[in-house]
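Kindly inspect the following:
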Amino acid sequence: MAKPLRILHCFRSPVGGVFRHVRDLAEEQSKAGHEVGILCDSLTGGTHEDLLFDDVRPFLSLGVTRLPIKRHISLSDATTLWNSYNKVKSLRPDVLHGHGAKGGLLARILGSALRVNKYRVARLYTAHGGSLHFSRASPQGLLVHTLERLLEFLTDGLIFICEFERRSYENKIGKPRTRTAMIYNGISERDFRNIPTRSDSVHFVYIGMLRDLKGPDLFVDAFAKTERQIGRPLSALMIGDGPDKDKYRTMMIQRGLGHRIGMLPAMRVHEAFSMSQNVVVPSRAEAMPYIVLEALAAEKAVIASRVGGIAEALGEHSPALAESGNADDLARVMAAAITEPTWRQQTMPDTETIRSTFSASVMARDTIELYYNILAYSDEH
């Protein structure tokens, strides 16, 4: 039997899909006998995220290390790297697995520093969209993509969470010059259960970060257009936290929607699913969002922008997909979802298909196998 590994997951913000991904990986890896820890930012997250840390803490024998990690590259990163290095060195990891652009930077630089000091450590990176959301034409995109290319020399393995992410990487950064694997995001068996709606449920719900990249403004626009299209008032909720929350509240009030679109803070996703049968994902950019997989497992209707790997879950030609950034097209799909009685049954993929393709246990198994292959190759060379 292979020796159990000491695994440290590095990422910036303990919110949203990346945090969900790491929690699932950590739980499955711990159950398989490995020692697991987390290194992440101390500046983001709130009460909801504290509860999620409590859930995963029993599986983190290497503990949780939280340090100030800013979103953008800055001089303060040097301090973060120095403080992180001393802590990481004391944990003696076999694997440093970075998630998202900043987590990937930390894992690969820290792992390389450990190697200089004769430590045997595998350096892995999963982008989760991150730097791939930047346009190649923008100065910031050029800087970030050039840095990603250079960091390949410090990378033992790249994991893509969907085929879209693999294609985006090759188009924007180049064909990888290191080992790669495509391992879909996976959800746990406990996520596969029908969640009925409450008696006071609304027609539509948006669940996620309140920032423009995720499209809450498109949700508000499309909601108003859906009302006009079907000729009656509707109801909706926006559930989540984020930097643009006040902007969206003002937007709703100015358009006379303040009494028909409510706002609630972030909560456990299964509580949010009870608020509506129709989950709207209006993102401008994504990789493979967990909210889509979770909603499908809960037997909800998903209405989404055609971005990232969403079509890999819903189906390439799914009527549930709307043109990205187009509130009119999103409204068209939203109207169909609530006016056609069998729309969900005819449009959503079979639950068993989702279960077999997007499984947390398979995700963890394939990731661990990649760790071992990298470490074995390192020993041979």
